[in-house]
Amino acid sequence: MSKSLQAIRGMNDILPEQTPLWRYFEGTVARLLDNYGYKQIRMPIVEFTELFKRSIGEVTDIVEKEMYTFEDRNGDSLTLRPEGTAACVRAVLEHGITGGGQVQKLWYIGPMFRHERPQKGRYRQFHQIGLEVFNLDGPDIDAELIIMTWRLWGELGIRDAVKLELNSLGTSESRGRYREALVEYLSAHHDKLDEDSQRRLKTNPLRVLDTKNADTQAVLVDAPKMADYLDDESRAHFEGLKARLEAVGIPYVLNPKLVRGLDYYSKTVFEWVTDKLGAQGTVCAGGRYDGLVEQMGGKPTTGVGFAMGIERLVLMLETLELIPEEISRQVDVYLCAFGEEAELAGLALAERVRDQLPNLRLQVNAGAGSFKSQFKKADKSGALYALILGDDEMAQQVVGFKPLRGQGEQQSIAWDALAAHLATCVVQG
C-alpha cells in the first residue's frame, strides 16, 4: 500500500476555520500601515543563493544550516527566501527606486523558509509581515517603527503581554572594536563555553551573547558591554530613540545581549518578546542596517526595518482568547428556499440585497433539501438570521425573517424593504 500523502514536516495547511483569524490580523496590520504612509511591495519567494550569502553573512546559522537551496535546470544555485530584507533590498536596487536619496517606506507579506526543528511557534515554512525604510537616517524613523507596533498591540489587545527590548550595535567600526574585546575576553574563558559558542567565537562572536546555555551565560556576566564601545554618533542616535519612545509613553528594557542573528544590523536593534508562547518568545524584531545596500552593490543608503511572525501573533491571540466574535462568524444571513420557483426568486433577491449591502455576508442554500435540513445548515453556518422563501412567501412577495441566535419572533418582510431591514438588524443587532 502506498504511503498516504501529507504535508512536508514543518510546513502546515491553514484550514478554513483558521483563516478568518489570519485575515483579521493581516487586515488590521495592512490598514495600520496604510494610515502611516507605507506602500506594499511583493517579491519572489526564490532568489539567487548569493543574495543571502552576501547580505545575511556566510557564517550565520541561517546560511550555514537552515536555507533551502537547490540547483535549477540552468545550473544556478537558488534559495527559498529565509527572510525578506535582502530580497527587498535587491528589488529596490534592481528597479532604482531609492536612487538620488528617494525615501521609500515599504512593507511586504508572505512565506519564508528555514530548515529548523519544527516546534510550537517555529516552522520550516512560516509567514512574516516586514517593513523596510530607505534613506532616512535619524532616530525618528526608528521610533516610528516601534510606535506603529505599539499601536498594533493596542488594537489587538496584547500590550500587556509583550515587552520591548532595545540595544545599539553602533557603527561597523565601533562594533569591530567591541568584537576584538569580546573575543579576547571569551578566549580567556574558552573551556567554560558550550560547544556551539566555541564555534561561534571563531566565526560570529557577537552571537555568543545570544546563547541559551546557562554555563556560557554565567561567563558573559563580566564580559565587555557594547555600550562602552559605542561611538558618539551611535550613542546620540540611541539617546534620541529612547527620548522619543519616552515622549510617547512606550516602556522598554535595555538588553545589552541583544544582537539579532543577521550580520547586516547596525545601531538600533529591538525585539518585542512575550512569555505567553513558551520558548518562542520573539514576536517582532528588527533594527537598522545602514551599510547593507552598499554591501550589496548600491550607493550608500541608510535602512531600517522589522519583521513580525504571523504564526506566533495569531497563536498569541488564540492563547489569550482575544479573537473578536465577529470574525468567528462567517455568515450573517442564510437564505432558505423551498421549491424551484422560490429558489429562482431567492437568487434574484439575494443579488439585489448584495447590490445594496456589499459588505453583508449572505449565503444562499445550495442543494435544495427539506425545511428541517436547510434550517440545520443555516444554524451550522453560524448565521445570525435565516431568510425563508416558500409558497406562502412567494404569493405575498415577502420573505420570512427568523433570528437564529437570540430572542425574537419570525416576521415577514417585503422584498423591497429587506435590504433596509437587514442593514438595521445586522449592524445594530
Question: Summed up, what is this model?
Answer:
The protein is α+β, with helices and mostly antiparallel strands. The chain has helices at 19-35, 49-55, 61-66, 85-95, 139-156, 172-188, 195-203, 214-220, 232-248, 292-295, 310-319, 325-328, 340-356, 371-380, 391-396, 418-428; strands at 39-40, 46-48, 68-71, 77-80, 104-113, 125-134, 163-168, 253-254, 266-273, 282-288, 303-309, 333-337, 362-364, 385-389, 398-403, 411-414.
Task: List the topology elements.
Blueprint lengths: L18 H17 L3 E2 L5 E3 H7 L5 H6 L1 E4 L5 E4 L4 H11 L8 E10 L11 E10 L4 H18 L6 E6 L3 H17 L6 H9 L10 H7 L11 H17 L4 E2 L11 E8 L8 E7 L3 H4 L7 E7 H10 L5 H4 L4 E5 L2 H17 L5 E3 L6 H10 L4 E5 L1 H6 L1 E6 L7 E4 L3 H11 L1
Parallel strand pairs: 1-5, 7-8, 12-13, 12-14
Antiparallel strand pairs: 2-4, 3-4, 5-6, 6-11, 7-9, 9-10, 10-11, 14-15, 15-16
Could you explain the architecture of this structure?
The chain has 16 helices and 16 strands. By secondary structure, the protein is α+β, with helices and mostly antiparallel strands. A hairpin with a 7-residue loop joins strand 15 and strand 16. Helix 1 runs antiparallel to helix 5 and helix 5 runs parallel beside helix 9. The protein folds into two domains: 244 residues, BirA Bifunctional Protein, domain 2; 99 residues, Rossmann fold. The mean pLDDT is 91. Helix content is 40%, strand content 20%. The two termini are 54 Å apart.
